[in-house]
What we know:
By secondary structure, the protein is an all-alpha fold. The protein is 78% helix and 0% strand. Helix 1 (8-26) packs across helix 2, helix 5 (84-101) runs antiparallel to helix 10 and helix 6 packs across helix 9. The longest helix has 37 residues, at 192-228. The radius of gyration is 23 Å and the shape is elongated. The termini are far apart.
Amino acid sequence: MPGQKASEAQRREEIMRAAYDVASKQGVEALTVRAVAARAAVSHGTVLFHFNRRGTLVASLLDRVLEATAVLHMPATRGRLTRPPELLRAILRAEMERLSRDPRHFRLFLEYWALGVRHAAIRRRVSAALDSYRAAFRAVAEGVVNDASGSALPVATRRGASSDAEGLAAVAVSFVHGCALQAVIDPKTFSVERHFEMAVRMLDGVAEAPRVRGKARGKEKQSANGSRD
């Protein structure tokens, strides 16, 4: 109904959107209760009712920024992809497109990262979010590495698959965030398509490493057995 009073949840969301607008245009340092109240067209007291101090407002906005930049969003096509490499490529492309679509998200992420140099609490939260993001990629990367290595390879090779998956996940995240960074600093000439194509070539090389090592060790073993004979 026209003129109906907003619920507390709605009002809180309006304040958060206002906080995002202030921070994305003027920086996190400009995120004051007064500035947010003015942007949301509410009283200073209303902002304090929902966020009892500036620090709470800054921390709440960080939650939103990390959700947009350091939480893996699975693509809608996930259920139709049966091979791990195909799934990794689909996730990689979806994340690149999602993060580069609105560069403000990653610009704020970078600002919070810089703030973390001076504020240990912020640094810990950003680092924990990145650890979780890499872990989500690692779950997919393990399937890629296992698919490449195969169960018939030597035990030592299979043991190395864990570190291979860790490395593959780290590289994938670096490509996604590198893509987002390029969208921030060079939005006019940057192309997600070109970035994705190059990323896939390099990731395919990383994923192929276990198979190459396995074949090399297999040849070494055959050679050793032949020399003993």
